[in-house]
Amino acid sequence: MSLPRARTAWVLMLLAGLAGCQDSIVDLSTVNDEELDDQAAISPLVSGMALTLSTAVGFLSQTGLIAAREMAYGGAGEDLGATLAQAAGELTPVDSDRHWNAAHQARWTAEDGVRRIRAILGEEEFARSRPAAEALLYVGFSNRLLGENMCQAIVDGGPPEPRTVHFQRAEDAFTEALAIAERIGDAALADAAHAGRASARVGLGDWAGARSDAEGVPAGFAFLIPFDGGDDDRSNRVAAGSTAVQRAHTAWGTFYQAYYEATSDPRVPWGTDPANPETRNGLPWLFQTKYDDRQAPIELVTWEEMRLIVAEAALRTGDVEGATAEIDALRAAAGVDPWPVDDLESAWTALKRERGIELWLEARRLWDLHRWLQEGIPGEAEDMTGRDTCFPIGAIEQGTNPNLP
Amino acid sequence: MSRPWLIAVVCVAFCALLAASSNAQTVGAIAGQVVDDATGMPIPYIQVYVVGEDVGAVTDERGRFRIPEAQAGARLLRAEGLGYTASEAPVTVVAGGTAEIAIALRPEPLRLDEIVATGTAAGALGRQIPHSVGRIDVSRIDEPVATVDELLAGRLPGVTVQQSSGNAGSGSQIRLRGNVSAALSNEPLVYVDGVRIRSDGYPENLPKVENNDGPNDTPSPLNDINPADIDRIEIVKGPAATTLYGAEAASGVVQIFTRRGRSGPPVWTAEVGQGFDRVLDFGTSDRPFVGMEPWLDGAAWRQRYGVSVAGGGPVGYFVSTSLDRNDGVLPDNRDDRWTVRANLDVQPREDLSVRLSTAHTAHDLQNIAGGLDSNSLTLNVFRGRTNALGDTTRQGLEQLLDYDIETGLDHTILGLTAIHAPSSSWMNRVTLGYDRAASAMRQLRPVGFVFAPDGILAEEDWVNGILTAEYVGSIDLTLPRRTSTTLSWGAQSVTSTVESDAGYAEGFDAEEEPTIEGGELSLDFHSKVRTRTSGVFGEMLAGWRDRYYVTGGLRLDGSTAFGDDLGLQAYPRIGGSYIVSEEDFWRDGWGDLKLRTSYGHAGRAPGVIDELRSWMMTSFDGEEAVVPGTIGNPDLGPERTAELEIGFEGSFLNDRLVAEFSYYRQRTTDALFPITPIPSRGFLETQLRNVGTLRNDGIELTLAGSVVSGASFGWDAGFYLHTNDSKLTDLGGAPPLRVFDAGWILEDAPVPTLIAPRILNPDAIAEPIIEEDHVWGATIPTTVLGVSSTIRLPKGIEIDARGEYMGGHYVFDNVGNNLARREVYPPCDPAYALREAGRDDELTAWQRVWCIADNVPDDGGPIYPGDFFRFRELTLRAPLPGTVLGDWRATVVASAQNFWAWKNDDFLLFDPEMVGDDGMQTIVRRIDSQVPSPSRFVVSVRVTR
Predict the structure, then answer these.
(1) Which member of B168, B202, B209, B767 has the greatest number of CB atoms within 10 A?
(2) A14 and chain B: CB distance < 8 Å anywhere?
(3) What does residue A172 show for φ and ψ, rounded to 5 degrees?
(4) CB contact A100 to B (< 8 Å)
(5) What is the pTM of this model?
């Protein structure tokens, strides 16, 4: 540190006959910002992006499942359940702080990390760097998470903007990641970038682009965000809320209760526990078993989602047959019967239900319901009457950001 | 534990002892007893010496002394000691014989002519001091005190000491005149024999990953000091008195003076203490220990052994060692402390004296996980059927005891002071000191542990070294017309280096001893932070006619913790005292009266890394990871607290009543607050900024009197009152800050303040009427009352009793909130029964909020009124007649401490003195999943020769 006035006092001490030594600060459990401008920091930076995104997905999946009626509120508080307001479908700024803050930290960490890695490597090396492409994927997925869940966009303390800003940033990041992946011949990265961009383009309403990207993703592809399960913030919070202690939510009363009872579709599994028949608030406890434990990863994007993007793109052009074929193929793979489809509306119902099933408990449903409601898309889905379909700007952001009224 | 310097110190000390013995030249002896002129009671630790000769002795616990080597003939004997007017008496020494003499010393309750070392540059007489000074004469305390925390608790107004928890080694929280900072440590600075030591707690024994796993408690370095080594403690409580300590002294200064050898033959003292600790009920009548009954030791054994020798010839020496072994009240808890001290005093030249102070403590703690940690026994027991373990059986819960947590504290304090006095009016003093507080922390969850089947090992070696260098010079100038002036000047540098090497590993082979290197995941952490604060100071004290005194002083400080452009900080002070009783109109029988006032500034510096933008290093999915930490503030500076103090000290009714009163008014500007950054900028951790202003006002009143005074019976009684009214007056435009759950910082409220829902009709059988966001009030006591009583009986028997009331504050029950949300909150047991019977309509409004999980406010209470009265001490001291084992004299002391408490009826669960998982460092006092501090019952035998 350079503190001339402190040293002035020290000089006075020397005059008094006392000796001194140089100041130094080293703290590797808290790393100084400038120390990250180093090649050795790139890997920890990218892992940090994954960690912050993981935390954000944990929060949004936990509350999103209640808000979007994927499961019903079980009586546990907001640590692993929901607040009473959230349970009633009201997403307040105060209750949304954790989600807003975590998602924005994930975005900022990834975007700042990309800026830093670019500076460390230089443009030429950056354009051929696998960690750089990974980092760009985290930029893309964190922006997609914000775009899909937050009612408004804010970037780095700026003014509020439409949420499409996040989708645009996501698309740009996925595009650059794709270019790097193709340049270095990394097919897995390219698939992730393609798939991510397809979902971002859905947010932008670019269905042709989305379909084009989705078509390029190979069968069996999935990109997951891990959880190490260390503490709640590092855990799959949906799984953490599904323990006999928490009993935070239940499939009881939701579409997925009856659907699973009727079909045993392995994509929406739930179970019962004779020793704990009820949730904390006295509902029958039908706990999800999609995620076995706190370390279970959550899928950020999959081939199955790509097929549903293709199907939805088809439906938007009136191609009921093409859309139904995609959906039926997924259902056949899951071992369940096709949806009864006889017109455009029932095809939309099938599409809506199928996306709900395929993306169950992945922090995606609120966005689907929101955009369909906004567009007035026909077909049945969860009844969101009187319920919020996106998270507002968090109370802390509102209280600290000078660009907000 | 074994260190080369220790051997050297012990050798030096005993060589000095031998040297002292070999120099004995006896021609006649003087023996006798020193008693209190007012009470007739013997006075221990009085220095008695022959004027003009280098021979003397110190009185033992019975006030007796023996000088074996006085020159024969007519001699003048002088006796002097703390709190008494020195007295001289003629004595005739017969060669080969023993002259017997009794000396009675007159108490000087105001101590106007005693030197006070704390708060002034070079020391000053009590009459010259413009501020209040709290003094504890440890040698006069009968109670077998185990820690310095206990020495400070409940004895002085404005010194608030609250216990933390029942964990072995738990440190107490000390506040002088309340909180002056919302963001920084409010622990006072601590000096031992002029050497700055660490005053903040040791770090908690927690891993660098998953960092709430562990005991969640804080040992105090202060408790590494053996109380039996302490002669006296001086306390100055605010900036009006601490200006000369500079940029870190706003929370006050505690100065400990350890015992030293005095001229005379060796006086040996040995002590053996045996006793036990026991936790008092902290639950409801049906569940008095909230399920912890099977786990609490109802009589956790305490042992204490100590021996010391003090004396002096050419070399004054005090050498001591002690061993404390305490079983904790919790299972697998232990607190073992071994201390050794050697203090040497030499005067190689007439104008030069040198003091060496050395001490070392090895303090080993064993704990189990506690607090808000899923591995915690208390958490799992309190949560009952809803616990994290999913098992309430004893066998199931015992699995948690496989978690081994060990802390090895090594504390070394070295001090060297040289005083050069070329003349009676000119003095130079240089002090060099080094304090090394080290903690070796280890915790192991072995392979197969219930919450870590693959095993987790965390280790950390942490060291805080504080180097103190100080020079003080002073010169006395006697001017005409009975005017005197003392000029003092000096410089001080304190360099603190905190270094940590830590490792974290998980995933071990069950067949091998776990090591950090042997884990499937292995992480290393290293940190080293050095902070230096350097300052120069000057002071002028002017007096006229022994009754009017004015003091002015200034300190200039620079610190590496200040922002780059902040520069030097200036801290001024001015004060005055007036000895009214020296006036001609004051009659002899009226006693003594001193009026005083003082005004000064002091600071509180932030941590050196607070100005830096930093990232946290952690792990994720088996890889090293960095995530945003704090956003940094390059403009960071120290807080500045200004204090005005006005008061008086008086002794009345022929010294039978002593009164002291102070009013203080503190204003902290540039107050540091943890401001929440804009979340969309990525950093979520709060950042310190100098934005606020807060005030702190109150009074301190002490009354001490001799109710009955006689040769064979006496009764002294004491009382003190302290009030503290704290308010944040300006938050710099920032919105209210939430610092912990229900703890907030907001304008026009104490710092911090509890805000939580309040039920307006708690007892009505009706739906609750709730006032949301009710401002409850302060979290630290606003009123403290202390009472004490000493009864003196024939044969030197004394009974001491001491109690303390604290109130006016509120306590957030964080455990209660968790239990209520799980519907296992003990105060709700009757309500749960009603609900089970389907009689919900009979629930009171309070029960409808707190006994139905859906209705429990998140993090919003319950809030309890914190008022309590606690019997701090009841002690019986009885000297045994005659001698034992030759010429040793014995005293038996039996004491019960903190053995009874009253608390407010609305304090439903746990104990008002609990402070929460941050231990003594906590900002928002609260109740976390710990058990309260235990009561203590000890019998001690002290022998002296």
Answers:
(1) B202
(2) no
(3) -60, -45
(4) yes
(5) 0.80
